[in-house]
Amino acid sequence: MAGVAGRLARRWCSGALRSPLQITRFPALQLHVCGPAMRASQKDFENAMNQVKLLKKDPGNEVKLKLYALYKQATEGPCNVPKPGVLDFINKAKWDAWHALGSLPKETARQNYVDLVSSLSASSESSGQVTPAADRKQPGSDALVVTSRDGITTITLNRPDKKNALTPQMYHDIMLALEAASKDDSAITVLTGNGDYYCSGNDLTNFTDIPPGEVEERARSGAVLLRDFVDCFIDFPKPLVAVVNGPAVGISVTLLGLFDIVYATDRATFHTPFSHLGQSPEGCSSYTFPKMMGPSKATEMLVFGKKLTAREACTQGLVTEVFPDSTFQKEVWVRLKAYSKLPPNAMRISKQVIRNREKEKLHAINAEESSILQERWLSDECMNAIVNFLSKKAKL
Ligand SMILES: CCCCCCCCCCC/C=C/C(=O)SCCNC(=O)CCNC(=O)[C@H](O)C(C)(C)COP(=O)(O)OP(=O)(O)OC[C@H]1O[C@@H](n2cnc3c(N)ncnc32)[C@H](O)[C@@H]1OP(=O)(O)O
């Protein structure tokens, strides 16, 4: 019996008991929770298989054999393969466990498997698969996709036809997704973009269709939104990784100073055309950029809107590492999967040791930047720049 645990564990990890990529599109971010009285769906079964791989405590050989038997019964039906020889201890033990289930229906075996895993998870505090509570309300749109796999929660900007420009709904949804990710079982959290851009920054149409008497109120509420949004990044407790899959503009660049790691494709560029837009720096960049690259390089970016290549951004400390575009996704995800297996509590605590020292300062800077921007949004310079962009006169 000694090798059964190892064999089963290898089998669990080999993909033989396949785990689905759990994709959630807001607003349907819900775990399929299956109580004992309900019938387990195929999705519940697959989720349970996934959870088994993430159990922290070894459940012991007896339980593993039970899981194996229920899995075989649920997927193949009653055991009718030849009995292994008496000296083939491992396979005989597995055969015995499966055979003992007799003619138990597949659906019942599936349900029993889900129930057993659920009881093991409760007592073992499983890690890895995202298990957002079903009652956590997640309003939103298709412009954000949240996936959970291998201990990594990935938040993907999904508005590729608009270069992933950020709408107010997306700001709200990102905040909700970060809040959920901070509490889920994942070890690290990733922000990335779908399509050829990482993100083109604030959606400039956010400034349109404002009735004349409401401009000031909209600027005020915009500043509150900005402040709350950036606060979520300052306070995020787990390692936060930006997977920069293409060019980045505006707030998507400034926020990188609040990430723990920034991986970029060599196709990415980084620019913050704030002056061109009659605006001013946000995302704590007025502090993080001079700190990381020195005041004059920061001024080139934040005041003059200089566009950096990925390699230049790496030299300036804004990007952690640059990868060839052809191997970017593969290399980055291999790396992140390895990191996600490190002890999550240790990573959290280490991040906090690094971040806590500066938190108060960052919050104060965020408040100040937001309030300066509130004024800027009311300026002629800003209005004219936005009208120019929207009338296609200016590409920034
Ligand atoms: C008072 C209200 C307050 C509201 C709430 C505020 C909340 C916080 C605000 C925080 C402050 C943030 C500041 C910033 O982020 S500043 C940076 C803003 N971004 C830009 O200036 C980029 C503008 N876009 C471009 O310059 C180009 O589109 C780009 C270089 C990104 C790509 O050029 P390309 O030629 O490759 O592609 P297109 O221009 O044809 O783009 C395709 C379509 O996407 C639309 N698009 C792209 N970016 C934006 C954007 N930022 N906002 C709105 N729309 C965008 C573009 O118009 C095209 O659309 P159509 O196909 O319909 O023409």
Automatic annotation (TrEMBL):
Q: Which residues form the signal peptide?
A: none
* Role description: Able to isomerize both 3-cis and 3-trans double bonds into the 2-trans form in a range of enoyl-CoA species. Has a preference for 3-trans substrates.
- What GO MF terms are annotated? delta(3)-delta(2)-enoyl-CoA isomerase activity; fatty-acyl-CoA binding
Record carries keyword Manganese = no
Report the protein name in the record.
Enoyl-CoA delta isomerase 2
Q: Which domain of life is it from?
A: Eukaryota
Pathway given for this chain reads:
Lipid metabolism; fatty acid beta-oxidation
Q: Which Gene3D superfamilies match?
A: 1.20.80.10, 2-enoyl-CoA Hydratase, Chain A, domain 1 (3.90.226.10), Lyase 2-enoyl-coa Hydratase, Chain A, domain 2 (1.10.12.10)
One GO cellular component this record assigns the protein to is:
peroxisomal matrix
Q: Indicate the segments annotated as coiled coil, or none if absent.
A: none
* Keyword check for Thylakoid: no
Please give the chief subcellular localization of this protein.
Answer: mitochondrion
Which PANTHER family does this entry report, sorted A to Z? Answer: ENOYL-COA DELTA ISOMERASE 2, PTHR43684
* PROSITE patterns noted in UniProt: ACB_1, ACB_2
Which SUPFAM superfamilies does UniProt cross-reference here?
Answer: Acyl-CoA binding protein (SSF47027), ClpP/crotonase (SSF52096)
From the Swiss-Prot or TrEMBL record, state where the protein is found. Mitochondrion; Peroxisome matrix
| Source organism of this protein record | Balaenoptera musculus
The record's catalysed reaction(s) read: (3E)-nonenoyl-CoA = (2E)-nonenoyl-CoA; (3E)-octenoyl-CoA = (2E)-octenoyl-CoA; (2E)-tetradecenoyl-CoA = (3Z)-tetradecenoyl-CoA; (3Z)-octenoyl-CoA = (2E)-octenoyl-CoA
Pfam families referenced in this protein's UniProt entry, alphabetically: ACBP, ECH_1
Under Enzyme Commission nomenclature, its number is 5.3.3.8
Q: Which residues form the ACB domain?
A: 41-126
